[in-house]
Amino acid sequence: MTSNRNHDIKDAALADAGLARIEWDYQEMPVLRSLAERFGAKRPLQGIRISGCLHITTETANLARTLKTAGADVVLCASNPLSTQDDVAAALVHHFDIPVFAIRGESTEVYYQHIHAALDHQPVITMDDGADLVSEIHKTRKDLIDQMLGGTEETTTGVIRLRAMADQGALKFPVIAVNDAMTKHLFDNRYGTGQSTLDGIIRATNILLAGKTFTVVGYGWCGRGIAMRAKGHGAKVIVTEVDPLRSLEAAMDGYRIMPLLEAARHSDFIVTATGDKHVVDRSHMAVMKDGCVLANSGHFNVEINIPALEAIATRKQRPRAAVDEYILEDDRRIRLLAEGRLVNLAAAEGHPSAVMDMSFANQVLTAAYLAGHKEKLTNKVHKVPAEIDQQVASMKLAAMDIQIDQLTEEQQHYLSSWQEGTE
Same domain, yes or no, for 342 and 368? Predict the structure, then answer.
């Protein structure tokens, strides 16, 4: 599957509108702006071909323009058929001269055609949201492996896939888990996902959350953020988990903990954020309340068993743009948002740019790190170097005009020694 086209977008006429939104968000991304200023002169990515399978949003546009300023040759495709902002795709092509292969609502067939178009760019670095580029290289484009410097991965789901590949000895080039950087998951996953998921649910339904029972499936960093924001809206929050430590943490954070089968009987909203398959299954649907709203905030549209929902429904209707209402034999209604895809991007605009500023600063700095460390990295999933994480945090603090204390020489010496104790 190849492509000779230099881009595939919905409508070039949307480019000016997309540019205005990209520039609006750029003002909320001071770390990226600082990196662009610094790397515009040094150009550490000069001539480096990068293919990104990412959500085509205003924030991603500002990542791409920063990479290009640093010298990279960038091509983008979508990492989700419903997350593309068509005006942004048009602006990237026509105002930034960055090829984009992404159309909102594209079929699965076109989605993979676009992935292959991005791989036709012959990348030496990949940037993934979900590991589809890396997976496709290893399955169908093995000719690219030998030239690869490495890849970066932005999502929890993608990191899980990549670690499975590494554990099985299948990963043939190094990948850095940008998702696991402290300046990514502590902020992007918690504050970004928390706010944007609630934004997507509210935009899709316009249902008041206060007083409703709101179940969060999974208490990782994304689940923590969703639960926190739902509680802030006045919802009665239930958390379901399979991990004892996370369950204990959620309980001490003040949430009710119970099995999902029990929670499903009481829930007005159920939101998944696990990175796993069919966590909301037919057995849960069988006991759900009439009108229960299902939404997914995990990367792939497999967390809710949609085929099972289709099978038990007698009919389906679409009362609102991002809502599919399934009517069951007993006349109960189950409302699925955004076709089970990422609700924060398919029904809203994704994370606020201020948190993506840190995530994408990690991407830029990690790409530069990959470009300079090819011979030193083994074929496994690596952590973001601690100095990059610290650098991003320091740059963000400076942009927020926040000053912090510094250790004195005496304090540094004390922390690095063992001789001193009780005086």
Answer: no
Strand residue runs (E) in 129-261: 150-153, 175-177, 213-217, 236-240, 256-257
d(CA 276, CA 273): 8
Paired with 20 in beta bridges are: none
Domain boundary among 346, 371, 387: 346
Structure tokens at 368: 């530069």
Instruction: Report the CATH number at residue 92.
Output: 3.40.50.1480
Q: What's the pLDDT score for residue 405? A: 96
Residue 145 is classified by DSSP as G
* Angle formed by the axes of helices 132-140 and 156-167, nearest 10°: 30
Minimal CA–CA distance to 157: which of 186, 187, 135, 173?
135
Sheet strands (E) in 8-86: 49-54, 73-78
**Number of independent structural domains in the chain:** 2
Measure the CA–CA gap between 1 and 115, rounded to whole angstroms: 10
Q: Which domain holds residue 73?
A: 12-184+351-399
Q: Is 301 exposed, middle or buried (0-12, 13-18, 19+ CB in 10 A)?
A: middle
Are residues 290 and 165 located together in one domain of the fold? no
Residue 36's identity, in one-letter code, is A
Same domain, 29 and 162: yes
CA distance 35 to 48: 17
Q: Two tokens at 114?
A: 């676009």
What whole-number distance in Å separates Cα of residue 125 and Cα of residue 15?
27
Residue 363 has pLDDT above 50, yes or no: yes
Q: Residue 256 phi/psi, 5° resolution?
A: -75, 140
Look at strands 49-54 and 125-128 and give their pairing. parallel
Same domain, 20 and 153: yes
In contact, 96 and 121? CB cutoff 8 Å:
no
Specify the 3-state DSSP secondary structure of 236: strand
User: What integer pLDDT is reported at residue 3 of this predicted model?
Assistant: 36
pLDDT per residue over 293-327, tens digit each?
Answer: 999 999 889 999 999 999 999 999 999 999 999 99
φ/ψ (deg, to 5) at 235:
-75, 155
